[in-house]
Amino acid sequence: MRLATRDNGTPDGELVLVSADGTRCMPTGPAVPTLLSALERWDSALPALHAAAACLAGGEGAPLDLATLRAPLPRTWQWLDGSAFPTHGELMQQAFNLPPIETDKPLMYQGMSHQFLAPTEDAPFPSAADGVDFEGEFGVVTGAVPMGCSAEDALAHVRLVVLINDWSLRTIAPVEMKTGFGWVQAKPACSVAPFAVTPDELGDAWRDGRVCLPLTVTVNGAWFGSPNGSAMAYGFHELIAHAARTRSLPAGTIIGSGTVSNADHAVVGSTCISERRAIEKIAHGEFRTSFLGQGDRVAMQVGEDAAHFGRIDQRVRLTDG
Questions:
Q1: Nearest 5 degrees, angle CA 220-CA 221-CA 226?
Q2: pTM for the predicted model, two decimal places
Q3: Structural contact between residues 126 and 318, judged by C-beta atoms closer than 8 angstroms
């Protein structure tokens, strides 16, 4: 199934199912009004979801207006972002002379979850001086996960898979990191592609707790990178188990993969500016790519037709002009 949230003037929007070709949609009705309500009682919501899916498969449904779609979860209980691609961390360490992080556990932080930007709305930031950057990621949305859930059991709690742009402010990040208390100002609201899909929609591309597909990023229409999500050092099942070691996770928790990054970055490119700048620093001794400015446009999708998740396509809007 492919699920989306249509703007209806309420904080959580209206849940709709989307046809396989992405052209039609069907509301799930008052029994399952929002995606968060569906996630919180997934088993009992499934009949209504399957019924809407069957109607769509039979040719029913209204035309889908992509401009009305918000993030699949406009707000939720928890957003936990990992850093599961080792190449990204290794490049950062080499370029900036950072010591390796001494741990045998996944890296993860808790970000803001009360707002996720729609896939086509302008992304607001205070100033270009803050180092506006994007990060292309995959994510999973869980059902309720009990404390102590094992990695072996964790995939059973994955309800949906999503595509995320984790916006980052690179000038602020190192200042906050030095405090040892994590990010607040450096991590504004993320953006999410319009369609959240059940894992079976990905077919063989969903394996070993990974989305084994290339994530393509363009900036102002120019190709930036297409690394593959298969290169995670930890799969999503391991990230879920890590997050749930000492606490339960509520239904609607989103867990991110971190910046998608591959060892053959000279061929496949990158999904964030900071990584490209690190590569430039290593190769040339200087940064050659600037962070984003007013009106710059960032787009992300999976596959040439963006069939799985739809497309994130946003402009940067700086409030200082």
A1: 110
A2: 0.96
A3: yes
Contact by Cβ (8 Å): 195, 315: no
Residue for token digits 């990204």? 88
Decide which of 13 and 31 is more confident. Answer: 13
What single-letter amino acid sits at 274? Answer: S
Crossing angle of helices 86-96 and 273-284, rounded to 10°:
50
Tokens 């749930």 appear where?
244
Calculate the CA dihedral of residues 291, 297, 300, 303 and round it to 10 degrees.
-130
Are 47 and 55 in contact by the 8 Å Cβ rule? The answer is no
Rounded distance, CA 155 to CA 36, Å? 19
Distance CA 80, CA 254 (A): 6
More confident residue, 193 or 31: 193
Cα torsion 130, 134, 135, 141 to 10°: value is 100
Give the separation between CA 1 and CA 207, rounded to whole angstroms. Answer: 17
CA-closest candidate to residue 121, choices 16, 188, 192: 192
Distance CA(76)–CA(159), nearest Å, equals: 14
Angle 139-255-212 (CA atoms, 0-180°, nearest 5)? 35
Residue 222 CB coordination number (10 Å): 7
DSSP bridge partners of 214 = 228
Q: How far is CA 160 from the centre of its chain?
A: 12
What pLDDT is attached to residue 103?
A: 82
Q: How many residues does the chain have?
A: 321
Check residue 121 and report its DSSP letter: S
CB 240 within 8 A of CB 149: yes
How many Å apart are CA 82 and CA 234, to the nearest integer? 9
